[in-house]
Amino acid sequence: MLCYNFGMLNFFYCARLQIGCLVFLLYIGFLLLNGADKNAKCNVFYNLFFALAELCVVFDGITAWSVNNLEKVSMTANIILHGIFYILLEAELWLMYFYFRSSVNRMPKTRYEKIFFICLVVVFAVLTMATLPQIKIIKGQTTNYSYGLPVFIVFSMVPLPFFLIAVMGREYIRRAEPIKRLTLKSCFFTVLFFSLLQFVFHEILITSVNVSLIAIAVALNSENPIFHRLERILKKYEMEKNYYDRLEEIEQKQSIIRHDEKHYLAAIGGLCAEGKTEEIARLLKVMNIELQKNTPKKYVRNRITNALFNEKENIASKENVKIDFQVEPEVELDSMEDIDLIAMFGNLIDNAVCAEKEWKDSPDKDSVDSAVVIKLFETEGNFIMFTVENHFLTLDVKNGKLVSTKKVPGEHGLGLFNVERLCEKYGGLFDMETEGNTFISSICLPKKI
Predict the structure, then answer these.
(1) pLDDT in tens, 359-389
(2) What CA–CA distances, in Å, run from 227 to 51, 231, 282, 392, 422?
(3) 381 phi and psi, to 5 degrees?
């Protein structure tokens, strides 16, 4: 019993850093699971990424113990354990890269691109496995550690996914929120620093620190439920602020109109005395237009959706684009989160207004009246339908997906990808179709009874 306890203490001593990192990762994982949105669709790359991070730290601890207990663990066993550890590390780096690509909806689509990445992954794995017999066990000042060509291969691979992310996602990173940019850059430079430190001081065994930092950085960057809630609150606040700013602007204009009412009434009285009915009608029409223009409209009962429609109509008006709202005032939307309604409806309206403006300003357009048509209604089968119709000049579709025509690649695709993801969250469907020069995007959501 004493020997057994001593052996356990020896293991804890050799793998103390890895055990600390593992406990921390498990705690972060618990927080993520506890705060996760139960209805949200999970990102399979992130789930595998976090699970492998924990396995990497476990095998880092096992190999740290095995190289310091050569009398108990043979060299063959050491090579096998190190082989598993190195392959897990490489898989972790590739999962990080593909997680990033999936989060921006830019996964490899062409056959050649897929073959390229498969070959790249296989080449690194084969090189690592082929050089495993060259592992050396070196006696350090405090503990033994493993070193050799396979270690160099794995650590030399660290900058590759970061480089590919920087090249492929430079526009995404540049346009990301400051907190996300800070997280990505901090992660990159910290991992680079620790990797260089490992090369210079071989005895500093910090692989588990690197893995933990990457996993936590990715969690903070995209998957942290606390950050998600904060982002939703900020977006909702921004929408409401824009709406109430608009109300304040309208109130000021209405005050001016009310102030000028006596002048209008005096003018109408004078025109009436002179019997100029046409001038009276024209003046009343001008007054009515001014009042309508500066009165917030009540489209639906849902406060946030109503604010969104008013805001989007105001923005479209500034772009000289007409929006025709055909909505049922009593449609039930309160069962959905406000921020999700903003994301789904807002993305489709923004895209439609942008496309309609391009079509309207083109000299080659048809003689059809230009307008974005928005329909919102409930069906007899307890479904909520939201459709947006707009004209378009060109439409680029590749591999069944709509390709962005915006200046920033992927931005348009990201919006539609987000709409599709949110529809799935509520058990609904998202569809796009064309009829001549008209593009129709539709959302069908089950009504919560």
Answers:
(1) 888 776 655 677 899 999 988 768 899 999 9
(2) 21, 6, 55, 36, 17
(3) -90, 25
